[in-house]
User: Fold these one by one.
Assistant:
Number 1:
Amino acid sequence: MKKRLLIFLIFCLTGFVIYKVTKKINLNFNYEVGQHLDSLNNVVVYYNGGVDNSSGRNTSSDNYNIGIKYQCVEFVKRYYYEHLNHKMPDAYGHAKDFYDKDLSDGELNKKRNLVQYKNGSKSKPKPDDLVVFSGSTFNKYGHVAIVSSVDDDEIEIIQQNPGPFGKSRDKIKLKSIDGLWTLDNDRLLGWLRKE
């Protein structure tokens, strides 16, 4: 019985180590870390490799913390800084921390100095909105992206670090139910907007 338990523990530990290592390395040999993949309004999306890969911290010339290269947070903060001339008062935090669950729909998120809307809002998402996804079993930090376009029944997002085989652009179904706009994704918490 002890031998089986030991084998089981070794198997679990080995699986955990492999899982952690593969989140840091580049498994997609078609791209190199830091390679230009896409852009929106002249703000570039870079390839990150493994989702937990870190290529150092990106700061602006005036020492504003943009984020860890080439994580999702780094892209959205760089987008807001370069395209919208916006600095967030709280320049740190994981992706899921961008959304404050204690705020009402349409209230100012003071940490980000952006108006926050919940998924199920009277306000329809707009281009340049920052969308926030909750954490998951395999990504406890959550995810953030920028709305690149809005149609009647879907939005398109642009994102950095969706995984080594993920795409920089993705579409999410948009529904209007009883006057409330909802994005059809169970992990999507809401969106933030510079007004």
Number 2:
Amino acid sequence: MPVDSTEPRAGRLCRFAFFAAAAGLILCLGHILPSRAAEPALQEQLAVCAGCHGENGVSAMENTPSLAGHPVLYTQIQLFLFREGQRVNEAMNAVAAGMSDDRLTTLAEHYAKLPPVPLSAAPDPALDARGRETAESHYCGACHLPDYAGRDQMPRLAGQREDYLLKALRDYKTGARAGDGAQMAEVVYGLGEEDLKAVAHHIAHFK
């Protein structure tokens, strides 16, 4: 893949992440996996997911993401990483452990069709301004799109729970979240705690 030296670093990271994630998913899902225990019916599976992520994919649980409106490929990859133990979360590893490729694709397609989180509360003007400036200077829109709607393997961020966004940014910075975001660790490397809070606030309230 040729490298354009004039392209912003974040843009190059974004393109590399896309090709790496897509290629890895295709290669892994293309293999015949060992037989797994019988899966629950789809509605039973969705009920389990709703216990944390909300009936319509809109989470009301602290530090738990909303899933509504995420791109199909993003959710497919995350479920795959949880299933294979490459992304570690005790609850999600247990839920995804028995999922077939067809099931994780069906779930990804289901949540992609749900309407995104409705925005209500107005942002804090000063915090929002700081977050906007930081997000723009770190090219967040290069991967997640200028409206933060997400694309391909990049998640939708607009309207996401603020506490979850802050947790994710902290985890990328400390290395606690691995398996899906080497490029994110580099993006947030130089940001302090107040910067992370501002970015999370701005994107959570983005209209």
